[in-house]
Amino acid sequence: MTETTATETTAPETTAPVAHTSPAAGGAASAGYGLSAVGLLRSEWIKLRSVRSTAWSYALLVLVSLALAAVMSSTLDLQGADASMIPAADQATFIAQTATFGVFFGQLIVAVLGALTISGEYSTGMIRSTLTAVPRRLPALAAKAAVLFGTTFLVGLAANLGSYLVASLILSRQGLGVSIADPAVFLPVLGGALYLALIAVFALGVGTIVRSGAGGIAVVLGIVLLLPMVLQVIAAPWAAAVLPYLVSNAGINMFGLMSFSQVPIEWWVNLLVVLGWLAVSLVGAAAVLKRRDA
Amino acid sequence: MIQAQSLTKRHGDKTAVDAIDFTVQPGTVTGLLGPNGAGKSTIMRMIVGLDRPTAGSVTVNGKHYREHRAPLCEVGVLLDAKAVHTGRSARNHLLALAATHGIPAARVDEVIELTGLGSVARKRVGGFSLGMGQRLGIAAALLGDPSVLILDEPVNGLDPEGVQWVRQLMRRLAAEGRTVLLSSHMMSEMALTADHLIMLGRGKVIANAPVSEIIGMAGTHRVRVRTPQAAQLAALLAQPDVTVTTDEPDLLKVSGISAGDIGEHAAGAGIVLHELTGVSASLEEAYLALTQDEVEYRASGSAQLQEAGR
Predict the structure, then answer these.
(1) Region (Disordered) spans which residues (chain A) (predicted)?
(2) Do residues A204 and A289 touch, judged by C-beta distance below 8 A?
């Protein structure tokens, strides 16, 4: 063999039995194997953890969050003011903003990861294996979305909690400090993680519709990153009116990091806006996945 | 068992598969044969629901593929080597597929051993040779211990040892009572492996019969004659229904007359013969004869080539 692989394959023992149950037709099927929700979730979890891009993306998410929290909290200048003079509510807001600042960048990282989760299957041909194993197709997409959502939420939560700890540690030297139990802190920390998980699944839907890795990433980043910038530049009133309802603006407004509207928008309205974008993406993905030849 | 009824696939105006009917029986190796664009891969993809038929239907063991509770345990399919994420190890690829059906890791290790991938199972698939990729595809197909196997060009990229291994595997799977459907461009491979052939041309079934019968359809038996007096013998044999061709100075290929008659003619004229062998048509010739009118892209391009070759 002239293959690049280092190891030489030897011809396997051809007299070994192929069947591990009975050689009769449908032997394994009668052994109780079959598609199940738990099985699909496990399969998608194996897939997610067994490609390098996942570990890289999540590690980057955590590192960027911690680094930003460290930079933001260590550059805080009280200009000689006594920390005890600052109202607790303002302290909580500042710490919450510091703990969730990484979400700004994190949303781009998980958006790329979400798009790659499915477009990687299309570009490599893996999708044919996936859809052959799950010929009804939609359960495979649902399992993929669920696993991506859960994993991203947990990693996002870890990143935000870590950022809170880093910020608290650095700010305590200036006498600032708010407990994680304060709703003004833990709600944004949870909300930031929730938004990251939702944007990852949104990107998964877009990736399913677009199918190509580069295309999926371009479309998702266009919606998350470029659209808000472009609309901000446009002076027309309609642009200002639309701005708060862009997925990334609503998502970031949701945990109070930044507002894009003259009038405050309730967190649940922002959540509904994000869920609306998500629904459009997933419904489109489901329709396309079901109909198109793979 | 695989059953297709009026199975049709159109892409726009182009008909890839044209209302075909066929049944693939268990216990045999059935070959799907045809020129490029004849619809072989499209048929295979429709069987496992990757492509949706425009009309008609195809069932596996009595049901549409997607309606089976454990599809991987009904049908094992190798569509092409490129159905694997290149960034994942072979073992993780198989584990992910197995997990969907609750198939245990022990079975994954079993098919890894069976396909000879043991030493590379934990390496990323991106570095695999074509042959390794084929072995992994076959491992995936065997994962659910299915009663039906569908393999598109399974020996593609395999070394001679691998080719022989696949051939024996196909035979054994069929002997175990399974339904085996494979496609190949390699006619000699089909002749060695398949019991039954479904020949396709322009999306239609042009022959559906045992291999021996298909070879018989090509009809013409020829006789190889080796003689130092080739020109003299050729002149002697010149009759309206006899054709004589020659590739080498002392070798004639004769059809339309029996070996015995050639021997008589030669003896009568005192011509020395070094060889006189009856040759039955090869599967390749049968295939070419049957698909002569069916080759899709026999357009002006190849006609010009033939002209140029003269």
Answers:
(1) 1-23
(2) no
H or E segment to which residue A82 belongs: none
What residue spans define the domains of chain B?
2-210, 222-280
Residues of chain A by 3-state class (helix, strand, coil), percent to 5: 75, 0, 25
Q: How many Cβ atoms sit within 10 Å of the Cβ of residue B115?
A: 27
How much is the pLDDT for A106?
95
Flag if A1 and B119 touch (Cβ within 8 Å). no
- A268-to-A238, A274, B42 alpha-carbon distances in Å: 23, 10, 49
> Does residue A47 sit at the B interface (CB-CB below 8 Å)?
yes
Residue ranges for chain A with pLDDT beneath 70: 1-31, 256-262
Q: Which residue has the tokens 């194993």?
A: A133
Torsion of CA B101, B104, B110, B112, to 10 degrees: 70
Question: Hey, are the CB atoms on A25 and B61 less than 8 Å from each other?
Answer: yes
Q: Which of residues 208-247 of B touch A (CB under 8 A)?
A: none
Task: Give me the amino acid identity at A143.
Answer: A
B48–A126 C-beta distance less than 8 A = no
Beta carbons within 8 Å of A209's beta carbon, 6+ residues apart: A281, A284, A285, A288
pLDDT tens-digit map of A237-268: 999 889 999 999 999 888 766 666 667 888 88
Contact: B85, A24; criterion CB under 8 Å: no
Distance CA B99, CA B114 (A): 19
Greatest Cα pair distance in chain B: 77
Per-domain residue ranges of chain A: 37-76+83-291
Contact B87 A53 (CB under 8 A): yes
3-state secondary structure of B94: helix
Asked whether the beta carbons of A154 and A190 are under 8 A apart, the reply is no
Of the CA atoms within 13 Å of residue B277, those in its CB half-sphere come to 9
Rounded to an integer, what distance in angstroms lies between the CA atom of residue B300 and that of residue A198?
56
Residue with token string 């039906």: B148
Question: What CATH class has B222-280?
Answer: alpha beta
Distance CA B167, CA B165 (A): 5
Helix, strand, or coil (residue B222) = strand
Phi (first) and psi of residue B100, to 5 degrees: -60, -35
Q: What's the one-letter identity of residue A145?
A: A
Calpha distance A240→A126 (Å, rounded) = 43
CATH of B2-210, one of 3.40.50.300, 2.40.10.240, 2.60.40.1120, 1.20.58.1560: 3.40.50.300
Q: Specify whether the CB–CB gap between B70 and B144 falls below 8 A.
A: yes
State which H helix or E strand residue A126 sits in.
helix A126-133
- Measured between beta carbons, the chain A residues lying within 8 angstroms of B88 are 47, 50-51, 126
A94 has which bridge partners? none
For the segment B147-206, what is each residue's pLDDT rounded down to a tens digit? 999 999 888 888 889 899 999 999 999 999 999 999 977 777 788 889 999 988 888 898
Query: Which chain A residue's Cα is nearest to B168?
Result: A14
Decide: B187 and B231 in contact? Cβ < 8 Å.
no
Q: Which residues contact A106 (CB under 8 A, 6 or more apart)?
A: A61, A64, A65, A156, A159, A192, A196
Stretches in chain B below the pLDDT threshold 70 = 80-81, 218-220, 281, 291-310
